[in-house]
Each structure stands twice: as structure tokens, then as C-alpha cells.
């Protein structure tokens, strides 16, 4: 599938297809015409004796200097070279490709004033599977994700380094030549247009929301398995109870759990008049309230992301009536806030998951299960340390939930005196989402053992199928084994979506 970049915004599915499935890209004829039309405006201003920011001046605190025509190619090249100042580990390939596509989408809007050849250079890099090396640090989330985008632009100039589709590190000039691509020589305004966007933080947001869609469903699966394995009740998830507090996400999560537990002989076994249990612990009873609030927060973040996808972020920008105006749309606050908000959500989802896991392991709270789910408690430790792993991750996620967007360090000689730190919010959310997947996978691993130990009582068809899929990779209860590979297998199944698909194969799509 080729993703066509038009004058309008790209969608979530387009970003994921290019970032993670290497879908090729093409610039539509309408976008090409819009790009060429706005370039005529920039060419006219380039020949005007009146200084225009980004066209015939320096940048940032150096914007007061008028740059003569003969120095402007060097000006644009120097801008990219000096701003490609990132440091630290390499950023993940999918995040970089998402950023490249989003920058190309803004170029295709016809509001940045670049030449068509410059936009085509980005399409060429994406289609060739060449991914510029971008580093962890360098963006403050204002004036765009400057350093990350500059490293991408540097590759288009034939400088710096890229990773091939196979992951090999190659000098950009050599990689371009090997794929028949020409390096770009930048003209007036183009350097700014390539780096002055929120594309890095936005790409991270789109990918994080995509992953959270899957992990929210997995959270419901894990919680249902824990309810079952710990002899809790499903009555609290009834639709009429949810209607008393009409948060939409809560209703979805409760409906998911009701469907997942339908037909469970384990749940039915204690749904009798002689059951002395009055209420379950909050981590079981309130699972839909927490997962539902997470869904509603993600929905808000998605709305922000969709508005940002429809935005043209550049400074200066070519307006629809042909003016070239400075503006502040590059400030990353809208994206930074929701990135931080999602980090809070991720930490709390992981926290309640860890509490459910811990209940399985405590003989005083597990309702008849052996200590730590061990085969021979004392000789065996069962899942004792798996919970330690969860606890360590949850503690880290709490630290990552501290908002980056409340921080600001002035830069550029106080010209850029308030910045968003959205890139930092994006990077910590990336790590947080990875941590959540591991925490939920450990809960499923532990709950599956608890469910198995309830036999001969059978689980619900949906949760039982999840256990069956897990058992294709991880053996059931027994003496202690090397546990790390089993956790890794469960994490792999969680991240691939296999655990959720197993339940959905039985009961249909989850909300």
C-alpha cells in the first residue's frame, strides 16, 4: 500500500503504515501544484530588498542580520549543520520515519515555501528505507523539534549518517548514491521549513496512542483473568451500574470484562447464597473505572493529535492569501500536555495491574491458592520475583509520569524564553508504554497460573483461550523454571496483540 501525501493531513493509519510497515509514499499532483505555487511567493521575497525572516535574515536571536543573496545557500546549509546537534542514544526507527512523514505532510500543504524537489527528497528517503540517525537529546519542543528534524534534513543534504532497511549504518552520501537519490542543495527558506515543526513529538504521540489502543484491551483481558483466578465477582461490571456514572470509557471496559467472563465455571462456582464475600478489593472491583478513565484520556489525546495532524507548523508560514508571516504555532504545548497526561495514565494502569498480581501471591488474600503460586512453597518461589519485576517497572513509570511540560529552560539568548519540552514528554512516554506492556504481560502470566490452579473448574471460553495461547509458549504450573524466558514470551505475545486476539477469536472484537 502506497501512502499518498496530499494537501490535507495524513491519518493515524498512514503514519503507522509508513513508520512500522515501510509503506512507500508518493506526493499527489494537487500537493505538488500547491508546493510549486507557494514557492513562487518565496522566490519573489528573496529578490525583495526588504528583509524577511527566514528568507533573507539570520535565525532566532540572529534574525536582525540581513543576508546577501550570494550567502543564502550557505545560510540554509549552515542552519541544518549547526542544528544537527543531537546527543545520546539513537531514536527508534519507527519514530524517525513517523517524524519524516509528518514533516513531508506539512511540506505538501503548500504553506512552507519549499521547492518540490526538496519534498521529493523526503519521499525518496522513506521509499528507499533510509532512516537518518537521530539522537535522544536536542529538542526543547519549541521552534519545532529542531535537532531531531535537522538530523533528518542533514541526510537529505547527503551529510551525516543513515540506517539502511537492514539496519546497517552508512554515510548518507553513499546511501543516497546507492539508491539513485540526489542530495538536496537548499534554497531560501528551506532550511527553516525542514526543522520548524512538532513532527517528532507528534509522531511519538500517534505511535503511543496506537499501542495504547491494544494495551487497553489487554488490560481488560488481564483484569478479567485476575477476577476469575481470585474468585471475585463479575456482578459489579453490570451495565446498569455503569450507567449510574456515564463515563464512556468505563462502560466500554466493564462491557469487555463482562463478555470476557461470560460462561466461567470458576465465577459461577461461588455465585451462591453461601458465599461470604461481600466486596472485592479495589484493584478488582474498580478495574473498569481505572481502565475507562484511561480510555477517555486517550480519546482526548487522540483529538489533540488529529488537530495537530491537520495543522501546518512552520515559521514563517505562507498564508492562504500569499502573505509570509511569523507566528508561534511551533510551540509544542498542546502536544506536550497530552503526552504527559498519557504518561500518568500508563503509570496508573500498570500500578493497578501490579496490585492484582500481588494478590495472587499472598496466601492470605488469594482464596486457597498456594503461596506465590509455587508448586512446593519453600523449595519453590513460584512467581515471587516476577512481581518484583513488575514493582520495579511500576516505580520507574511513576517517575516517568512527572510532567516534562511544566519545565522550561530559556534558550537562544532569551529570544526563545519559554519552551514546551514536548520531545522529552514524548521520549518518556515511549519508555512508559513499553513498561506497561511488560507489567500487563506478567499479570496475564500470573493470572493464567492462578486459573490453571482452580481446575477442574473451567475458565470462561474467552479467558480459557488466552491461557491456551500462552501455554503454546509457556508451560503451566510446576516446579520452578528459568522464569525470564517465560516473561519474555508473554511480553512478546502482549506486544504482538496475540493475547487480545485469542480472546476476540471467541467473543468478537473488544471495545
TrEMBL record:
Catalytic activity: L-histidine = trans-urocanate + NH4(+)
Pfam families xrefs: Lyase_aromatic
Any single GO CC term annotated in Swiss-Prot or TrEMBL for this entry: cytoplasm
Pathway stated in the Swiss-Prot or TrEMBL entry: Amino-acid degradation; L-histidine degradation into L-glutamate; N-formimidoyl-L-glutamate from L-histidine: step 1/3
Keywords: Histidine metabolism, Lyase
Organism: Mycolicibacterium madagascariense
MF term (GO), any: histidine ammonia-lyase activity
Documented EC number(s): 4.3.1.3
Domain of life: Bacteria
Protein name: Histidine ammonia-lyase
Entry's localization field: Cytoplasm
Gene3D superfamilies: Fumarase/aspartase (Central domain), Fumarase/aspartase (N-terminal domain)
Family, per entry: Belongs to the PAL/histidase family.
Record InterPro entries: Aromatic_Lyase, Fumarase/histidase_N, HutH, L-Aspartase-like, Phe/His_NH3-lyase_AS
GO biological process: L-histidine catabolic process to glutamate and formamide; L-histidine catabolic process to glutamate and formate
Chief localization: cytoplasm
Amino acid at each position: 500500500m502506497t501512502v499518498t501525501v496530499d494537501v490535507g493531513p495524513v491519518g493515524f493509519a498512514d503514519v503507522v503504515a509508513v513508520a512500522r510497515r515501510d509503506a512507500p509514499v508518493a506526493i499527489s499532483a494537487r500537493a505538488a501544484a500547491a508546493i510549486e505555487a507557494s514557492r513562487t511567493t518565496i522566490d519573489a521575497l528573496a529578490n525583495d530588498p526588504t528583509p524577511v525572516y527566514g528568507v533573507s535574515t539570520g535565525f532566532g536571536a540572529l534574525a536582525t542580520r540581513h543576508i546577501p543573496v550570494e550567502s543564502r545557500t550557505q545560510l540554509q546549509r549552515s542552519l541544518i549543520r549547526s542544528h544537527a546537534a543531537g546527543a545520546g542514544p539513537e531514536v527508534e526507527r519507527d519514530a524517525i520515519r513517523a517524524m519524516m512523514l509528518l514533516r513531508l505532510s506539512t511540506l505538501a500543504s503548500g504553506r512552507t515555501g519549499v521547492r518540490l524537489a526538496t519534498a521529493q527528497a523526503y519521499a525518496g528517503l522513506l521509499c528507499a528505507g533510509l532512516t537518518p540517525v537521530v539522537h535522544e537529546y536536542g529538542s526543547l519542543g519549541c521552534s519545532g523539534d529542531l535537532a531531531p528534524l535537522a538530523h533528518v534534513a542533514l541526510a537529505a543534504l547527503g551529510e551525516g549518517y543513515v540506517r539502511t532497511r537492514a539496519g546497517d549504518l552508512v554515510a548518507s552520501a553513499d546511501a543516497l548514491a546507492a539508491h539513485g537519490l540526489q542530495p538536496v542543495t537548499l534554497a531560501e527558506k528551506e532550511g527553516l521549513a525542514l526543522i520548524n515543526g512538532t513532527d517528532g513529538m507528534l509522531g511519538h504521540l500517534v505511535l503511543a496512542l496506537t499501542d495504547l489502543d491494544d494495551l487497553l484491551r489487554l488490560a481488560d483481558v488481564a483484569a478479567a483473568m485476575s477476577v476469575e483466578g481470585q474468585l471475585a465477582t463479575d456482578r459489579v461490571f453490570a451495565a446498569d451500574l455503569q450507567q449510574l456514572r456515564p463515563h464512556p470509557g468505563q462502560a466500554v471496559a466493564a462491557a469487555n470484562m463482562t463478555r470476557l467472563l461470560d460462561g466461567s465455571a470458576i465465577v459461577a462456582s461461588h455465585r451462591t447464597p453461601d458465599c461470604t464475600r461481600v466486596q472485592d478489593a479495589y484493584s478488582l472491583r474498580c478495574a473498569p473505572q481505572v481502565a475507562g478513565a484511561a480510555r477517555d484520556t486517550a480519546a482526548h489525546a487522540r483529538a489533540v493529535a488529529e488537530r495537530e495532524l491537520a495543522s501546518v507548523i512552520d515559521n514563517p508560514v505562507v498564508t492562504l492569501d500569499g502573505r509570509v508571516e511569523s507566528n508561534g504555532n511551533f510551540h509544542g504545548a498542546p502536544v506536550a500536555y497530552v503526552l504527559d497526561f498519557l504518561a500518568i495514565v500508563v503509570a496508573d494502569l500498570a500500578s493497578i495491574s501490579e496490585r492484582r498480581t500481588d494478590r495472587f501471591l499472598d496466601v492470605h488474600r488469594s482464596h486457597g491458592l498456594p503461596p506465590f503460586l509455587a508448586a512446593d512453597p519453600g523449595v519453590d518461589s513460584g512467581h515471587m520475583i516476577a512481581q518484583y519485576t513488575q514493582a520495579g517497572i511500576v516505580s520507574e513509570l511513576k517517575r516517568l509520569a512527572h510532567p516534562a511540560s511544566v519545565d522550561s529552560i530559556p534558550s537562544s539568548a532569551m529570544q526563545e524564553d519559554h519552551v514546551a519540552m514536548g520531545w522529552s514528554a514524548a521520549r518518556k512516554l515511549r519508555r512508559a508504554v513499553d513498561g506497561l506492556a511488560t507489567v500487563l504481560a506478567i499479570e496475564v502470566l500470573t493470572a493464567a497460573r492462578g486459573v490453571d490452579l482452580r481446575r477442574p473448574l473451567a475458565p470462561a471460553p474467552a479467558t480459557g483461550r488466552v491461557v491456551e495461547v500462552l501455554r503454546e509458549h509457556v508451560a503451566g504450573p510446576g516446579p520452578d523454571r528459568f522464569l525470564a524466558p517465560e516473561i519474555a514470551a508473554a511480553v512478546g505475545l502482549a506486544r504482538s496483540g496475540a493475547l487480545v486476539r485469542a480472546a476476540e477469536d471467541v467473543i468478537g472484537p473488544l471495545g
